[in-house]
Design goal:
The chain is an alpha+beta fold. The protein has 8 helices and 9 strands. It folds into 2 domains: 42 residues, no CATH class; 136 residues, Bifunctional nuclease domain (Roll). The N and C termini lie far apart (84 Å).
Length: 189
């Protein structure tokens, strides 16, 4: 009975049936073949160059420069001598960094407060936060945590890395190459 009704409907509405089949085929193809584009994996591909896949000394900071961090309502300025690197960020993120730098605590804990409490409760120390690179108009940061003989390098957003570094009073480093390429002269009047 079903097939009889289906054939009858198809005879009457051939154009609609063809359109539905085409849309279904296009949707299926997009989901099946375009899954990386839909899931965000396409953005994650090739983030790590081949040389970064090799295990390196996490304490080797020869290609990094320790910077002074100035926080403003709409972003953060990393300063070294007359070079400055600006990273724009939402007010909430920059406010959290500024608050952590001042040692001010909110009535209710934020995600940075919670992470700080977990890290300090297990006697883990934060060695540094470093801004490593810019790719696809996004900055990438790393946080180095250590406990006894164990090290943990965490990929992080710069805002989260800075908020934790402010809480731990840890130094902040920026890739020297990034500072030269993306930085601006801030000493000119």
């Amino acid at each position: 009975m079903f097939w009889y009704r289906a054939r009858r409907w198809l005879r009457r509405k051939k154009l609609a049936a063809i359109l539905i089949l085409l849309l279904f085929g296009a949707g299926f193809s997009l989901v099946y073949f375009g899954a990386p584009l839909l899931s965000g994996f396409a953005v994650k591909e090739n983030i790590l160059p081949a040389e970064r896949l090799l295990l390196a000394d996490p304490y080797d900071l020869t290609d990094y420069t320790e910077v002074i961090v100035d926080v403003f309502s709409d972003g953060v300025l990393f300063k070294y001598e007359c070079r400055g690197l600006w990273i724009a960020m939402p007010y909430e993120k920059s406010f959290a960094i500024k608050r952590n730098m001042a040692g001010v605590f909110d009535i209710r804990p934020t995600q940075h407060d919670l992470l700080y409490d977990v890290i300090t409760n297990y006697d883990i120390n934060m060695s540094y936060a470093r801004i490593e690179r810019m790719q696809n108009n996004f900055f990438y940061a790393t946080v180095l945590l250590e406990h006894e003989e164990k090290l943990l390098q965490l990929d992080s957003r710069p805002s989260d890395a800075l908020a934790l570094a402010a809480r731990f009073k840890a130094p902040v480093y920026v890739s020297t190459k990034l500072l030269q390429q993306q930085g601006r002269d801030i000493c000119r009047d």
